[in-house]
Amino acid sequence: MARVVTLIDVIAHRGRAVRASIEAAGFGVLVFLGAARALVADGWFRRRLVLDQLAVCFLTPLPVVCIVGIFTGMILSLQIGVELAEYGQAERVSDILGVILFREMGPFMTAMILTASIGSAMAAELGTMAVSEELDALECLSIDAVSFLAMPRILALTVTLPMLAFIASVLAIVGGALVCKTQLDIGPDIYVRNVLDSLRADPGFGGWPEEVITGLLKALVFGTLVATTSCSTGLRATGGALGVGQAVRAAVVRSFLLIIIVGYFLSWAFFR
After folding, report:
1. Is residue 2 packed enough to be buried (19+ CB in 10 Å), middle (13-18) or exposed (0-12)?
2. Which terminus, N or C, of the chain has the lesser number of Cβ atoms within 10 Å?
């Protein structure tokens, strides 16, 4: 006879899920703190590993970031420009693009791309090492897994994501200029002037536009979140190949949620 699922069973299942989420978050914090401590203590000693991860995190997603950046700018320019043209304000599309891309869309879409490409790879690599007992071997050799594996990856993604976000935003501006010239009959000189004027309207630290600075700070936070979440999830993987797949899926989902939630609160803090 089939077992009847009771309310207690449902509550217990939800409770286990909440407990697992809290444990994962706590382990992620410990990994981040351990990586920060290892950066101070072993950063120079691990420089070769850091350089290798910098190359991977920057060069691997660069083509995708460039393509997505250009077409994002083209799509936004076309959609916004068509609506503004109905009110005779098509030239103002460049004002909107400059602010949106550097402040929000550039960091956001770049973080999503790197989560899918780099973050998932980090979780898979470390998860494979975890289920194949390579982490236990490192422990037997008195090698700190966080310092040896997590710290270079967290540092590399934290550094490269702002760089890629800036590149994506610039290329999106270029894509918007192409659409404005071909579809909206707006000259490049007018377009570029309006973009620069919109960015100069709010000067920030060191004379850099506030939108650019806040966008880079967001990208910095996103890079740290994605790398820490991916590494910590991979390090806790269990159960063979199935466990690695589950760890990759969990790392991507958690990173996406953190990017969206933390991105909102950062926007609220910067522009309230």
Report:
1. exposed
2. N
CA 63 to chain centre: 16
Predicted TM-score of the model (pTM): 0.91
d(CA 251, CA 254): 5
Residues 229 and 153: their CA atoms lie apart, in Å, by 11
Q: Token pair of 221, please?
A: 């936070």
Q: Are 159 and 56 in contact (CB under 8 A)?
A: no
Contacts of 203 (CB under 8 A, 6+ apart): 209, 210
Nearest to 211 by CA among 166, 252, 161, 259: 166
| CA 86 to mean position of chain CA atoms | 36
Q: In the structure encoding, which two tokens stand for residue 214, read together?
A: 């806040």
**Pairwise CA distance, residues 253 & 115, whole Å:** 9
pLDDT tens track for 173-197: 999 999 888 888 888 888 888 888 8
How far is Cα 109 from Cα 68, in angstroms, rounded to an integer?
8
User: Helices (DSSP H) in 101-133: which residue ranges?
Assistant: 106-114, 120-131
